[in-house]
Design goal:
Structural class: alpha/beta
Shape: elongated
Number of strands: 16
CATH topology of the largest domain: Rossmann fold
Number of domains: 3
CATH class of the largest domain: Alpha Beta
Helix content: 40-55%
Largest sheet: 6 strands, parallel
Order of helices and strands: HHHHEEHEHEEEHEHEEHEHEHEHEHEHEE
Number of helices: 14
Distance between the termini: 107 Å
Length: 370
């Protein structure tokens, strides 16, 4: 008689497997209840063996629980913990804010810092706030600021990194840091995000204002309000964001075919500069709009117009580009960039490892000066 053939073990039916998968989240929750509050769950392989399912099935179930906030995956190790363990174990290094010292005319960076603070709070991160008095020196808003040259910027960065580099878990950088200075420390300043202006230095992230969109909106708003000429105001030297907006404005005027409506820039850095500018407007027979890329100087120009008896906006209009609370309080017409959103976006970019680029368009706020 021929020997009987041995039957291979029957594989689990698909129905039984689906039923096991369906109950897996509850089985994992029971295991969580038996796990210490700061202890990791077993690995997915160990869980698969213990629960009798494939480790890929366990992985998918854990991911769903993590997305629902029932468990927490530690970024470094990839292990899963009870959700409460995050408060003890998730301790990223602080975000280092390498920005100017806040002074009377620093509304832009006050608003950016509010956003950075909110972003750090949302991500349970601390801030290392470091103000350098030499990076930007601007004690009197009626006078032009003084900016550190490239060699001094390099010395400032070297000093900071020597003192605090090991403590920082990422860097948010003032827009006046030059590309040359940042390039010299590109390997050590990581991850990092440059604020407000365009920065193409790899591998820095960049959260910036869209000055091209701002220039389109400014020209459209002013011409739509009936101004015959647009006079760009140069508030002071040394600010890369000021220079970037001026270049965008010239390009946009060419593209729109209205370059002939754009006058040569006028300097407004000091009180004598502003008086000279205003006196020139008094003699002009054509309705002109001043377009100023800095709120503090725009406020000073409005005062100069009032002191000279020039009706604004009937005879001369005034549009500011930044749109901080300084412009709002003065009721200036402005392009309003949301610097608090920029600050929050900078922290989110750091959390994703830096290297990303994001732009923010402004809104036109009519105000009372156009």
């Amino acid at each position: 008689m021929a020997p009987a053939r041995r039957r291979s073990p029957a594989s689990p039916s698909p129905l039984r497997s689906r039923r096991a998968d369906a109950g897996l989240p509850d089985r994992l929750r029971q295991l969580l209840a038996e796990t210490g509050p700061h202890e990791p769950l077993p690995t997915t392989r160990e869980l698969g063996l213990r629960l009798g399912v494939a480790n890929t099935t366990v992985f998918r179930a854990l991911r769903r629980l993590a997305e629902a906030g029932e468990i927490w995956q530690q970024p470094g190790s990839g292990r899963y913990f009870p959700a409460g363990a995050r408060l003890l174990l998730d301790r990223p290094k602080p975000v280092a804010c390498l920005i100017r010292r806040l002074e009377l005319g620093s509304e832009l960076y006050r608003e950016l810092l509010e956003g950075i603070s909110a972003g750090c709070g949302a991500g349970r991160r601390t801030m290392l706030l470091w103000h350098d008095e030499l990076l930007v020196n601007h004690p009197d808003p009626a006078e032009p600021p003084r900016f550190a040259p490239v060699a001094q910027q390099r010395a400032i960065l070297e000093d900071f990194l020597a003192r605090h580099g090991d403590a920082a878990g990422g860097y948010v950088l003032d827009h006046v840091w030059s590309d040359e200075a940042l390039q010299a420390f590109a390997d050590r300043l990581q991850p990092a995000v440059v604020l407000f202006r365009t920065c193409a230095v790899a591998p820095f992230g960049n959260v910036r204002a869209d000055f091209r969109a701002g220039a389109f909106k400014a020209v459209g708003h002013l011409l739509g309000r009936g101004f015959e000429r647009i006079l760009p105001v140069h508030p002071f030297d040394g600010d890369p964001a000021v220079d970037e907006f001026a270049a965008s404005l010239r390009t946009v005027a060419d593209e729109l075919g209205c370059a002939d409506r754009l006058l040569a820039p006028a300097v407004a850095a000091t009180a004598p500069d502003r008086r000279k500018l205003v006196q020139g407007l008094r003699r002009s027979p054509r309705r002109t709009a001043l377009l100023c890329p800095e709120d503090n100087v725009a406020v000073l120009l409005r005062s100069a117009l009032q002191e000279s008896g020039i009706a604004c906006p009937t005879a001369v209009g005034l549009l500011s580009v930044m749109g901080t609370d300084t412009a709002s309080r003065a009721e200036l017409s402005c392009l309003r960039y949301d610097f608090r959103q920029l600050g929050q976006a900078a922290v989110r970019t750091l959390d994703r490892g830096g290297g990303e680029a994001r732009t923010f368009e402004p809104e036109v706020w009519p105000g009372a000066t156009t």
